[in-house]
Amino acid sequence: MKKGVMRPGHVQLRVLDMAKALEHYVELLGLIEVDRDEQGRVYLKAWTETDKFSVVLREADEPGMDFMAFKVIDDACLSRLAGELQEFGCQVEELPAGELKDCGRRVQFTSPSGHRFELFAQKQVTGKWGLEEVNPEAWPRGLKGMRAVRFDHCLLYGDELDETLRLFTEVLGFTLAEQVLDGGTRIAQFLSLCMKAHDVAFILHPEKGRFHHASFFLETWEDVLRAADLISMTDTSIDIGPTRHGLTHGKTIYFFDPSGNRNEVFCGGDYHYPDHPVVTWTADQLGKAIFYHDRVLNERFLTVLT
Length: 306
Known about the structure:
Layout (H helix, E strand, L loop, with lengths): L4 E11 L2 H11 L3 E5 L5 E4 L9 E5 L4 E9 L2 H14 L3 E4 L10 E5 L5 E5 L29 E9 L2 H11 L3 E8 L2 E8 L7 E5 L5 E8 L3 H13 L4 E7 L6 E6 L5 E6 L11 E4 L3 H5 L8 H5 L3
Parallel strand pairs: 1-4, 5-8, 9-12, 10-17, 13-16
Antiparallel strand pairs: 1-5, 2-3, 3-4, 6-7, 7-8, 9-13, 10-11, 11-12, 14-15, 15-16
Family: Belongs to the extradiol ring-cleavage dioxygenase family.
EC number: 1.13.11.2
Protein name: Metapyrocatechase
């Protein structure tokens, strides 16, 4: 956190049909609807998250990600980073407090990979859903579906990975935790702010700004298996899993929302400290790196993007 960027804050996703999307994200994934705004956006959170929301859904004509946000330590840090982003060469736009409901002012910028990101310092704190701040129980009753614990990270596809890495490490303070190399070319990079395996990741792709998945953390392998059962019970479109990654070693399952946006739920995985050496996989082992058990990549995982 040497630059003051703390953690992922929220992601805004485009969906084709809000009613179907809410059935997926609330009833199946287990997020909690907390608010709506005049633009028709719906705000959701996972039960352990203390800020008001972590997922925003916007009805649109095509699916995908509008932006991913990271929370910084304070407003002075936000102003400093806005200047450093401009010095790096990013076009920076400031959005006023309240443009997202109960969120402070935000600084938006586009990475060299073509993805829209934003930073913010303030958001209404509502606490963990269904739990008291003093003497809290282990978990709240009434959780639905997969009982998602938190919004964890996004995987994004785009070009200019080297410049994107430089932006995230030199300006925003991320560290490179894991990578895939094809000869001298880095084709995948997993970036961390703290001790998580990653907070955002990028895969080399000729098209800028493509969205691969938003990921949500579950507590145990049994929870991942239960998620697989719920996917079958609801006839939800599945990509692959349950399985294990070689990269990060997390235990995972991938599936699609009704609009075609890919979701992941996972548990476990490696930890990373800034002084750890970068873990490297080579392109000839990419199948095993992504899907450790099958050791081959399925076509959907590489080509289905929003």
